[in-house]
Amino acid sequence: MTTDRRPRPAGALFHEKRYPPLWLRLVVLFSGLTTIAAGVLSYTTGDEGPAGAIVAALIGLLIVAVLLPVAGVVLVADDMLLLSLRPFNRRTIAAADISDVEQLGEVSGMFYGGVGWRRTRSGRVLIMGRGTRVRVRTTSGEDYVVVTRRADELLDALRRIAR
What we know:
The chain is α+β, with helices and mostly antiparallel strands. The chain has helices at 22-45, 51-67, 151-161; strands spanning 14-18, 71-77, 80-86, 89-94, 98-107, 116-120, 123-127, 131-138, 143-148. The strands form 2 sheets. Strands 5-8-9-7-6 form a 5-stranded mixed β-sheet, with helices on one face. Strands 1-2-3-4 form a 4-stranded antiparallel β-sheet, with helices on one face.
């Protein structure tokens, strides 16, 4: 639910980076540390060699290193819209492919069943927490919904690049 307040990338009309809610980030951290602790505990209390502890430590570190920095990124530039669930998934929509944008209602972070990329009957949703939905329709008929804390700014930027 936190919003990154660093300067926008050069040339961006709109930029928003949102991390998952704090409770979810704490669950990820706890899971990674628990995995590491389980490996160390099995090594110190058992007759097994260090291989199990090393594997558990690596898996725990991997959980933390991959899942903790996950963030939803929305970037509008002069020629495209970038929707990204960093570091896993990224969609780039050319400005010429945007046929319509509209603001929908405000929703909670669990409206679509959780945070991240979600699939609905009408298309894909990028949600990282509570916010206002903005629907982007493409010329191919695909719909993308972005949940943002700055819907008015996003709509203005999208309307500037849509043809």
